[in-house]
Amino acid sequence: MYGRCVHFSCPGCRSTRMRADQLCCRLNRIVAVQSNSFPDMSLRRKILLVVFGLALGAVVTGGVAGLTLWYVRVGAAPFLAEAPQLDALLYRGLWLVGAVTGALALGAALAGRWLLVSFRQSLQVLQDAVEQVRTGRLDAQVSVNPDDELRRLAQALNRMTTTLSQQTVSRSYLQAVLDSMAELLFVVDADGRVRRANAAAAQALGRSASALRGTALDDHFDADPLASSGEGTVECTLTPTDGPERPVLVSRSALERADATQGTLVCVAQDISERKAAEEKLRRSLEEKEVLLREIHHRVKNNLQVISSLLNAQARDVESPAVEDRFTETQDRIRSMASIHEQLYQTDDLSRIEFDAYLEGLLDDLFRSHRTAHIGRTLEADAQPLSVDQAIPAGLIVNELVTNALEHAFPEGRSGTVAVTFHADEGTARLTVADDGRGADGLGGNGSLGLRLVRGLTRQLRGTFSTDLDDGVTVTIAFPTNPSS
């Protein structure tokens, strides 16, 4: 009879329902007062009975009066023959009593009919207002007639509808809100069948909301959105009867209301076609950029190799061993940078270098180019990737220190070992190059080009530089793996 609230368990709605119940009780009391005498009779029959009684009383009274006059006229007939005026008077009296009796009976009938019609009209106004409330028009009002006996009932109904309109969301208003949603909404029962769908869902599936009612939810998707237990979000494809398929993101939640059926779910499907298209466009763009970056690294590596080959050809025409050594050192530096670009070209991650694998290849190149079979090597490196901005200077540092050890730490064929270690822990990397050669004599002066390069590259890494000359030479570089922090 009354509009339903979205949350009927709220205090305002409980108060509204109490007022509605009070109004119904008042209506029942009005009917009960009229029904005390004849509990099995309707109000219409009671009014007809009263009117019939009044009409019957008028007829009986008129009949008695007419019969009395007739008896008087019959009994006084011998005397009335000598008084014709008195006989005419009694005759007119009989007609007058009959006419008055008929008029009273007709008036009672007309009054009864008018009473029924007017009372029915008053009740019809109240019934129309209650019907409007039942269909969702919670702001329905009854025009109050100050002379109407049902005025208090009409005022109570107006107060109730005012309270309902202020504290209750009507069904039509709620349906309008649901139909204005851009997302697809389905109310699904415990058996997985659609109980209600909004306008967006009906339009997307090409069917009316009433046609969707009772259908299985999984019939409209490539996979059952309710297959996984519990609440959450699943991605699937909407499969309408007519029209293209579209990817959607379906979120599910239990409908928790006092009058909700156990297991009822609310499923909201959001069209993610545009997002998928944007992701695909971004993925293709990234792939194109990765291909371009790999091509750049490949060309840089080739250019560096060309430069190294030019230096090698130039060094063949040099007669001075010292100058030839300078050419060789420069080639090693170029080779260390070319190795990084070669690894970047071959790896999946174009922003980071697997530094342990890079060190392995770098040491192979250095030991092979210097032909130092009498010198051993060890490598201990953590699997810690470095960014390109850190890998290049760190690689050049290793190149300088290892080259210095191979050229100066083991003179005259002396055997020994060059050890390279790389460890990273808690945001700090520690790079160490050690040899067990002749110590400080193999390090070279502080003004040498190699040491100047190492110190400059250490500053570029925002690190620290330290040396230990006990039992050979040990150089340690410590730098943060995330310098921006």
UniProtKB/TrEMBL annotation:
<keyword id="KW-0843">Virulence</keyword>
<dbReference type="Pfam" id="PF00672">
    <property type="entry name" value="HAMP"/>
</dbReference>
<feature type="transmembrane region" description="Helical">
    <location>
        <begin position="92"/>
        <end position="116"/>
    </location>
</feature>
<feature type="domain" description="PAC">
    <location>
        <begin position="232"/>
        <end position="284"/>
    </location>
</feature>
<dbReference type="GO" id="GO:0016020">
    <property type="term" value="C:membrane"/>
</dbReference>
<keyword id="KW-0547">Nucleotide-binding</keyword>
<protein>
    <recommendedName>
        <fullName>histidine kinase</fullName>
        <ecNumber>2.7.13.3</ecNumber>
    </recommendedName>
</protein>
<dbReference type="InterPro" id="IPR003660">
    <property type="entry name" value="HAMP_dom"/>
</dbReference>
<keyword id="KW-0418">Kinase</keyword>
<feature type="domain" description="PAS">
    <location>
        <begin position="170"/>
        <end position="214"/>
    </location>
</feature>
<dbReference type="Pfam" id="PF13581">
    <property type="entry name" value="HATPase_c_2"/>
</dbReference>
<dbReference type="InterPro" id="IPR036890">
    <property type="entry name" value="HATPase_C_sf"/>
</dbReference>
<dbReference type="InterPro" id="IPR000014">
    <property type="entry name" value="PAS"/>
</dbReference>
<keyword id="KW-0597">Phosphoprotein</keyword>
<dbReference type="InterPro" id="IPR011495">
    <property type="entry name" value="Sig_transdc_His_kin_sub2_dim/P"/>
</dbReference>
<dbReference type="GO" id="GO:0007165">
    <property type="term" value="P:signal transduction"/>
</dbReference>
<feature type="transmembrane region" description="Helical">
    <location>
        <begin position="47"/>
        <end position="72"/>
    </location>
</feature>
<keyword id="KW-1133">Transmembrane helix</keyword>
<keyword id="KW-0812">Transmembrane</keyword>
<dbReference type="InterPro" id="IPR003594">
    <property type="entry name" value="HATPase_dom"/>
</dbReference>
<dbReference type="InterPro" id="IPR005467">
    <property type="entry name" value="His_kinase_dom"/>
</dbReference>
<dbReference type="Pfam" id="PF07568">
    <property type="entry name" value="HisKA_2"/>
</dbReference>
<dbReference type="GO" id="GO:0004673">
    <property type="term" value="F:protein histidine kinase activity"/>
</dbReference>
<dbReference type="InterPro" id="IPR013656">
    <property type="entry name" value="PAS_4"/>
</dbReference>
<dbReference type="InterPro" id="IPR000700">
    <property type="entry name" value="PAS-assoc_C"/>
</dbReference>
<keyword id="KW-0808">Transferase</keyword>
<dbReference type="GO" id="GO:0005524">
    <property type="term" value="F:ATP binding"/>
</dbReference>
<feature type="domain" description="Histidine kinase">
    <location>
        <begin position="295"/>
        <end position="483"/>
    </location>
</feature>
<dbReference type="Pfam" id="PF08448">
    <property type="entry name" value="PAS_4"/>
</dbReference>
<keyword id="KW-0472">Membrane</keyword>
<dbReference type="InterPro" id="IPR035965">
    <property type="entry name" value="PAS-like_dom_sf"/>
</dbReference>
<feature type="domain" description="HAMP">
    <location>
        <begin position="117"/>
        <end position="169"/>
    </location>
</feature>
<keyword id="KW-0067">ATP-binding</keyword>
